[in-house]
Design goal:
Helices cover about 25% and strands about 35% of the residues. The chain is an alpha+beta fold. The chain has a 4-stranded antiparallel beta sheet with strand order 6-7-9-8. Strands 3-2-5 form a 3-stranded antiparallel beta sheet, with no helix packed on it.
Amino acid sequence: MTSTVLTAASPVVGLGPVGLVLVIATALIAVTAVRVALPGERLVVLRAGRVVRSTSRPLSVIVPVLEQTRRWPTGPVEVSVLARSTTRDGVEVRVTASCLVELTAPARGATYVDPLPVIGDLLEGELVAAVAVRDVDGLIQPAFGLAATLALVEVRFGRVISVEVDAVEAILAPPGGPLP
């Protein structure tokens, strides 16, 4: 029976300080180059803030330091919207709505923008405009109310799948001015 004895001259032990640094550096680069996409999301790979590619594969390899990743949902995402506006008949209201949005993958070469705040701001503006052209009693009508209007909104990063108006609250103030 033969046995192997490691000596100072063997390649494993004899890496020396430079070899050890190279092994550690290679290991760090390999660990930082691999990204994992969770179920229900894709990875968007960016270089200098621009989309290089997007992938829904579970593992993706990037060039460390030059590239970075952002997570992008592949399924429907709920966006909550809160808006304060005045109806056509002069009633100040606060409206909360839940919108289900399906996102499309970002275009290659486009500047990356986090889609959810942009969609939230767009839907809030549409909600304020929709309130302003209706009387207070028409805000929650199924066919022509707020939910029907928001469901038709075109969003930059996808489409609105469904809208549910959670609450419409009238903001009452005493005669002579607002509450202190």
